[in-house]
Design a protein that fits this description.
By secondary structure, this protein is mostly helical. The protein contains 18 helices and four strands. The protein has a two-stranded antiparallel ribbon with strand order 1-2. A hairpin with a 4-residue loop joins β3 and β4. The protein starts with a helix and ends with a helix. The N terminus is likely disordered. Bound molecules: farnesyl diphosphate (FPP) and zinc ion.
Length: 418
């Protein structure tokens, strides 16, 4: 991988998934592409809290908008089949993510949208991103990355073992590679040797390993202790154990990792519940990712999914789900675009479409565990059923909050590897 590729991958991972930090100095004359991306980022409209509140309150007072499924689905199908729009060039190292976001959105809206032809395209594209059929990079000829591998495995889980593709996944190579990323403090790097080490790596590693049934004591050694150190005084989790601010993305990753290991009881759950409840903005009723920050539709999953996992474990009521649902339906559907969005004033995108839809499904579901045996719980035992809502339910698929994919696909994929 050239230093330009490393810079670009770092930049994209930081912007898209990473924690807040000083901008990386990647602007150089030799790289006009990155120069352009930086310009777009810098000129992005800064939305003021007052403005957001005003726009949301106006929209929240309107009659509830019902998700325009045909519009959204048609748009997504088009986006997947056509070539990438220019702004997507910026996501060169995130192609596995894009495939997962689009496929998962389609699956949640209507599984028949994901035709065999589209599934074959997904499988073909994903395996091109890997030299040995796993682990996966962010695009063709890119080095493997833990987040790309996570996204690729999730996307493959949606493809129904078409053409026996699940047997093609190189589980041995993935297991060895995951072990090679393991750090003495219990965390995982995102890729070697330049990767970041934080709760994202832990979650991606455990999600991949549990789905492919390659979990081992060696993989999970020290992980609980690492995550315990990431819980902050506020109750949420920071990126690392070095005192980072609690954030919705990292809190989801830590909570889901603990649920996968059936170790939720090893952290301060009451504080975590308080922290989740405090994420619901009192005017907009959507969720923010951290203290004193703006509401954003994607936290309907990162924080909403955390609350759903707590609910399954009998810690109910962190969020006002009906009010969050209203925020999603009235404020996250862009009237002009095909996609779902962060907040009024923003454009829709694939990332927000997926996580807002996951969040919407959560607001219409009750979460619980199958069976009474608390000591042997697995993340695959989490079930959901319909929670009655005031207006018409959206009819989205029920999802598993640990993996962020519909229950049906999850069960089928998981059972394949038992
Ligand atoms: C599985 C996996 C890799 C998950 C990643 C989860 C994660 C860290 C999500 C957060 C992503 C995000 C857009 C943060 C924005 O920070 P910001 O400072 O721009 O936004 P804020 O003001 O809302 O904090
Ligand atoms: Zn967002």
């Amino acid at each position: 991988m050239s230093s330009r590729d490393i810079n670009r991958a770092n930049f994209i991972n930081t912007k898209l998934l990473g924690r807040k930090r000083e901008p990386i100095d990647v602007r150089s004359e030799e790289d006009p592409e990155i120069e352009n991306i930086m310009k777009t980022v810098e000129t992005e409209t800064i939305i003021d809290r007052e403005e957001v509140m005003e726009a949301c309150v106006k929209l929240l007072n309107e009659p509830l908008h019902v998700l325009d499924k045909d519009f959204a689905a048609g748009g997504l199908t088009f986006a997947f089949n056509s070539s990438m729009p220019p702004q997507m060039v910026a996501l060169d190292a995130s192609q596995a993510w894009i495939v997962y976001w689009i496929a998962n959105s389609m699956m949640m809206i209507d599984p028949s949208l994901l035709t065999n032809e589209i599934k074959r395209k997904i499988v073909r594209k994903l395996f091109l991103m890997s030299k040995d059929n796993g682990p996966f990079g962010g695009g063709e000829s890119q080095l493997p990355h833990i987040a790309s591998t996570y996204a690729a495995i999730n996307a493959l889980a949606l493809c129904d073992n078409i053409d026996n593709c699940w047997n093609k996944i190189n589980r041995d190579a993935i297991y060895k590679w995951l072990l090679s990323l393991k750090q003495p403090d219990g965390s995982f790097t995102t890729c070697n040797p330049i990767g970041e080490r934080d709760t994202r790596g832990v979650y991606c590693a455990l999600s991949i390993a549990s789905l492919l049934n390659i979990m081992s004591d060696e993989l999970t050694e020290g992980v609980v202790e690492y995550l315990q150190q990431c819980q902050t005084y506020e109750g949420g989790f920071g990126a690392t154990r070095l005192g980072d601010e609690a954030h919705g993305g990292y809190t989801f990753c830590a909570t889901a990792s603990l649920v996968i290991m059936n170790k939720l009881n090893s952290i301060d759950i009451e504080k975590l519940m308080e922290w989740c409840a405090a994420r619901q903005c009192t005017e907009e009723m959507g969720l923010c990712g951290r203290s004193n920050k703006l509401v954003d539709g994607c936290y309907s999953f990162w924080v909403g999914g955390t609350a759903a996992m707590l609910e399954a474990n009998d810690y109910h009521g962190c969020l006002k789900k009906e009010a969050l649902r209203k925020y999603i339906l009235n404020c996250c559907q862009s009237k002009t675009g095909i996609a779902l969005r962060d907040k009024p004033g923003k454009n829709g995108d694939f990332y927000h479409t997926n996580y807002v839809l996951l969040g919407l499904s959560i607001t219409e579901s009750k979460f619980y565990y199958h069976g009474d045996d608390k000591t042997n719980r697995t993340p695959f035992d989490i079930l959901s059923k319909s929670l009655s809502v005031k207006e018409v339910p959206s009819g989205l698929a029920f999802i598993n909050p640990v993996y962020g994919i519909p229950n049906e696909s999850l069960q089928e994929f998981h059972e394949h590897f038992i």
